[in-house]
Amino acid sequence: MQTVQLNNGIDIPILGFGVFQIPKEQTAQAVQNAIHAGYRHIDTAQSYLNEREVGEGIAASGIARDELFVTTKIWVHNVSYDGVMRSFDESLARLGLDYVDLLLIHQPFNDVYGAWRAMEQLQTAGHVRSIGISNFAVDRAVDLAEFNEVVPQINQIEINPFQQQVSQIQALQQEGIAVEAWAPFAEGKNDIFSHPVLSEIAQRYNKSIAQVIVRWLVEQDVIVLAKSIQPERMVENIDVFDFALTADDKAEIATLNLGESQFFSHADPAMIKWMRGRELEGI
Q1: 282 in a domain, yes or no?
Q2: Cα–chain-centroid distance for residue 198?
Q3: Does the residue 135 lie in any domain?
Q4: What are phi and psi of 174, to 5 degrees?
Q5: Quick one: how far is CA 46 from the chain centroid?
Q6: Domain containing 253: what range?
Q7: By the 8 A CB rule, do 171 and 138 touch?
Q8: Which phi and psi angles does 181 have, rounded to 5°?
Q9: Number of Cβ atoms within 10 Å of the Cβ of 33
Q10: Which one of 32, 60, 192, 206 has the fewest beta carbons within 10 angstroms of its own beta carbon?
């Protein structure tokens, strides 16, 4: 598996298995299947409400802990110094792990700077190997880096053919912050899995549209999180290292960029209030 080296020297597998919206009762088996398919990078979050089941899948996989890269994220209600310290211990207990490889602030809201100080301490103590952020605009990421000891190792943001974030990727990478893509398939929006431009490119290489999208991101040194509960899709999504896109292919994909989120704006006050009001049982 190809890896990306983070700014603290830690290597992260460039392909990860995401568990967002996988039902609890299917999560443990999905994680087992993903590990069996070859994934060694598993991404969860407090707000996904399936950390316990992710841990069960990891434990049942038979793969040594040090061969896996496990990420979880701090939800907005816990984004403060005390909130991180309390809720991280709870996440570890649910996962059944002694440490995680990457801990992220899930959303750029609440006491981000207090939370970051707690995460720096957890990293120094060895409870977390890497720390980062998710859904932060570039200016917020740089602000956090400039006024704290540790530069975020990763920023996990929405990237897909309809929201390509070209300038954001370049700016983050120039700051030494690795970029990780969530929703690379835009959750199927805009008929992405039958889109004529992507279909034509896929046919040239005898690959699926999903494989073309993953390869397009890998060639930008972007870490990719893909989700599926189908074992054959898991195998397919990881099989992207035997072909390369041409400049013409990439130019065609560039024409698909709509330049806006396919889900919601993090600058929308209504969305911030919704997140604040979203009470999650157990976290």
Answers
A1: no
A2: 23
A3: yes
A4: -65, -30
A5: 13
A6: 3-277
A7: yes
A8: -100, 125
A9: 22
A10: 206
Residue 142 forms part of a structural domain: yes
Report the 10 Å Cβ neighbour count for 67. 9
Residue numbers in the chain where pLDDT is lower than 70? 282
d(CA 118, CA 158): 26
pLDDT for the residue numbered 283: 72
Residue with tokens 């059944």: 96
How far lies 97's CA from each of 7, 23, 173, 273, in Å? 24, 21, 30, 33
DSSP 178-234: EEEEE-TTGGGGGGGGG-HHHHHHHHHHT--HHHHHHHHHHTTT-EEEE--S-HHHH
Predicted local confidence at residue 112, as pLDDT:
98
Please state whether the predicted TM-score (pTM) of the whole model is above 0.85.
Answer: yes
Domain presence at residue 283: no
pLDDT at 281: 72
- Can you give the pLDDT at residue 276? 87
* Structural domains counted in the chain: 1
Output the six-digit token pair for 161: 């053919």
Which residues are catalytically annotated?
Answer: 48
What pLDDT, on the 0 to 100 scale, is given for residue 158? 97
Say how far apart CA 159 and CA 191 lie, in whole Å.
16
Instruction: Give bridge partners of residue 4 from the DSSP assignment.
Output: 12
Q: What is the CATH number of the domain that holds 163?
A: 3.20.20.100
The label of the residue with tokens 């956090």 reads 144
Q: How high is the pLDDT of residue 247?
A: 98
Residue 272: what residue type?
Answer: I
Using CA atoms, how far apart are residues 274 and 58, in angstroms rounded to an integer? 32
Decide: helix, strand or coil at residue 8: coil
